[in-house]
Design brief:
Number of strands: 0
Largest sheet: none
Distance between the termini: 55 Å
Radius of gyration: 45 Å
Shape: elongated
Order of helices and strands: HHHHHHHHHHHHHHHHHHH
Structural class: mainly alpha
Strand content: under 5%
């Protein structure tokens, strides 16, 4: 513990040697100068509690924490308490984070949350051992420092007693001047004493120094030389203090200032006419350094408070998601992505104050744990339902496969149609088996109807007539596609679609080609209609955005960004699925085409969201200029 700076009075250092004989007519003048040798006490720079680890590199792993502790032990335990506490917090934050991650993995694998037991930490014993060694080393160092202070106190008290004896008379002062200067030098060499004794000790020392010099009969020339030398020293100290105000490292400047204060106090007086001016200059330079030092930590405190506000908002958002009712897999997936995004934002925000940092983290972690626990319970509860649906759909597949080779076309057709309706009424199954079970059922149905179409060649004439009708409808739609798409146009399109649906079957071998032409022209019409609607929608959106401002714009942008990221993820999922898609049937190729069209529509939606985000950014920028 550093010894606090105590205000001192000028006059403690008078290095001019007093000759054995001094002219009688100068004695009164010299003694008067010594008696008036008092200056203002040096300003004590305020102590500021520096936040822990303000200039330390924070370890990023438990191994680094233990390595740092070992390094401190090897260096003799010389470490600030703030750094030691910071290392402890980092270690247990990482330790708890690993346990939380293991618990989430255990739960995600289907484990019982109540039965979870974290694995032993292999580094914890080493960590605790190094911490214990450091505490022992620091305790011994503290005891040694306290003993040294007590010894120093005894030494300084002995010096004061000797000075007291030397200051009893002018003769004693003259005779013991060199010895007295030696005591002053010895006093300077003795450093820390118990803090509660500093002021009293200094006052006693000051008293007998003044009494001693009051007894001295210094000649004017030697006194002037002493004043001149002290002036040079204190001028240099003023210049050094003024340069500290320009030093970029405010912490280093503050500590260097303390050394300058110590040297200023230990330097003797200057001529009376310059004392006030010189002291004011030094005090003003010290004030500038202290203000920068204080402002530095006020800025850190302000940043910590801002970080607390941001982290509190993230806690509230996760808590809201944990409390919200999710109605299905899509809702849970969307909410999960939002929680993960909030966790990523959390990592970008710095620390809060020491007294709130652990508390706000516990709140955020608890909110995340509540959300994922609710998600786990939901999926656990729906697992039985999914399994039951899978069993029901498997039974439907077996029935369809039993009927696919039947030649009783009408009865079997009705039976398969009934099975298809029953299939639609059956709830969903797990995503990983959904495609396989549907492919199995659809293949059985398609096989029967393909066989039926091949066997009912007698209806080909009717089918050819129907083909001509549908081709005529396609031509009408193609003609509409060449004109501007209006609301009236779309009414005509819907009428032609209804007419199309009323027309019966066409020849099976021409069905896919004809239907492809039909879909292409419809896609073109609806794409134009969608584009027009999109342009109108974008115009309305920009108009609505122009009427908003402030937090409304910020919330609107956050909502759009969330939708944008969700749409990107959906496109990525579809594109990944398409890479694994393998189809050998015409039905399968049609399904592949539909998926590709869906991806294109999603990409168009993504472009629309990007335009909306740009519109919001432009409005925010316009508002900031206003």
């Amino acid at each position: 513990m550093e010894e606090k700076l105590i205000p001192e009075v000028e006059g403690m250092k008078n290095e001019a040697l007093v000759p054995e004989t001094i002219e009688t007519e100068t004695t009164e003048t010299v003694v008067a100068d010594v008696q008036n040798n008092e200056e203002e006490p040096a300003e004590v720079a305020p102590e500021v509690n520096e936040p822990e680890a303000a200039e330390k590199t924070v370890p990023q792993s438990k191994v680094e924490v233990v390595a740092r502790l070992k390094e401190l032990v090897q260096n003799g335990g010389e470490v600030e308490r703030a750094e030691l506490e910071g290392l402890k917090q980092v270690y247990y934050r990482l330790h708890n984070a690993e346990a939380a991650a293991a618990r989430e993995e255990y739960i995600a694998a289907g484990g019982d949350p109540e039965a979870f037991m974290p694995a032993p930490d292999p580094l914890e014993a080493d960590f605790k051992a190094q911490m214990s060694l450091l505490r022992e080393i620091r305790a011994k160092a503290f005891e040694a420092a306290e003993k040294e202070k007590q010894d120093n106190l005894e030494k300084k008290l002995a010096i004061i007693e000797k000075m007291k004896e030397m200051a009893v008379s002018p003769d004693e002062a003259d005779k013991n001047y060199e010895a007295f200067k030696g005591l002053q030098a010895e006093w300077k060499e003795i450093k820390n004493v118990p803090a509660e004794k500093v002021t009293e000790l200094w006052k006693s020392y000051q008293l007998y120094v003044e009494q001693f010099y009051d007894q001295l009969r210094l000649n004017h020339e030697m006194r002037a030389y002493d004043f001149k030398k002290n002036l040079e020293i204190k001028t240099r100290l003023c210049e050094a203090a003024e340069k500290l105000a320009e030093l970029e490292d405010v912490i280093s400047a503050f500590h260097q200032l303390q050394n300058l204060h110590q040297e200023y106090r230990e330097t003797g007086p200057v001529v009376k006419e310059l004392r006030e001016e010189l002291w004011t200059r030094f005090k003003n330079a010290s004030t500038a350094v202290n203000k920068r030092h204080q402002a530095h930590f006020e800025a850190i405190k302000a940043q910590e408070e801002e970080n607390l506000v941001k982290k509190t908002q993230l806690c509230e958002q996760v808590e809201a998601l944990a409390a919200a009712e999710q109605k299905g897999f899509a809702d849970w997936e969307k909410a999960t992505q939002e929680v993960l995004e909030l966790q990523a934002q959390w990592k970008t925000i710095g620390f809060t104050s020491k007294k709130t940092n652990a508390k706000i983290f516990e709140r955020f972690r608890a909110a995340c744990d509540n959300f994922f626990q609710s998600k786990t319970e939901y999926f656990k509860n729906t697992r039985e339902t999914l399994n039951a649906n899978l069993a029901a759909k498997t039974a439907l597949c077996e029935k369809a496969e039993a009927l696919k080779d039947s030649t009783d076309w009408n009865a079997t057709s009705a039976a398969l149609v009934a099975l298809q309706k029953e299939w639609k009424a059956t709830g969903p199954v797990a995503h990983k088996v959904s495609e396989a079970i549907w492919t199995r059922f659809n293949a059985a149905c398609n096989y029967f109807f393909e066989q039926k179409n091949a066997a009912t060649a007698s209806v080909r004439e009717t089918e050819e007539a129907n083909l001509e009708k549908k081709n005529a409808i396609i031509e009408k739609l193609a003609a509409l596609a060449e004109t501007p798409v209006t609301a009236e146009t779309m009414q005509q399109v819907k009428a032609l679609q209804a007419e199309w649906n009323e027309v019966g079957h066409v020849p099976f071998r021409k069905k896919e080609k004809m239907y492809k032409r039909y879909r292409e022209v419809l896609d073109k019409l609806y794409k134009e209609a969608h584009a027009g609607a999109g342009r109108r929608h974008m115009e309305n959106f920009k108009k609505n955005v122009g009427e908003k401002g402030g937090n409304e714009l910020t919330r609107e942008r956050n909502k759009l960004m969330t939708a944008y990221e969700a749409k990107k993820q959906e496109i990525k999922n579809y594109e990944t699925n398409l890479t694994f898609f393998n189809s050998k049937s015409k039905k399968g190729n049609s399904l592949l085409g539909d998926l590709e069209k869906k991806v294109e529509r999603l990409k168009e939606d993504l472009v629309m969201l990007a335009e909306k985000i740009a519109a919001v950014d432009e409005q925010i920028k316009a508002d900031s200029k206003n």
